[in-house]
């Protein structure tokens, strides 16, 4: 096969064929791979004087270099991204909620399909069996002034996966081949 030197290929095998290496971040000596080093440099590691690194595509997906319209810029050799993320309240969009109430005495003790209303005028307190503080009838006729309330924090704070569906293959890089001409 006449392939270009440094070409990366997806490969269904779990080994690298002759003249290829798995893209596993190996460090190679420059003295034995001068042509390959001239193409890769130290973009993927190494000290640049006696050795250099191959790309490490284990658990990673390649992305094209440069910056597409409306996208972030990417530089050859850059590693970025994460398999999971923890959402914080600062990640959520700003939002508010109005509270609508019925400005009259409530007529039921359960909140199902009803609005907040005034409690009963008598029989309130700890001894009351089920005060009617909800109103099921006319639409709410009052909106409360903005106020600040707090709620218990929900969730467990554990990171969630953002990994796209995947199937694992090997990536291999040509260690030998035709030196690619420039346009």
From TrEMBL:
One Pfam family from the record: Collar
- SUPFAM superfamilies on file: Receptor-binding domain of short tail fibre protein gp12 (SSF88874)
What InterPro entries does the database record attribute to this sequence?
A: Phage_tail_collar_dom, Phage_tail_collar_dom_sf
Span of domain Phage tail collar: 7-62
Q: What is this protein called?
A: Microcystin-dependent protein
- Originating organism: Mucilaginibacter yixingensis
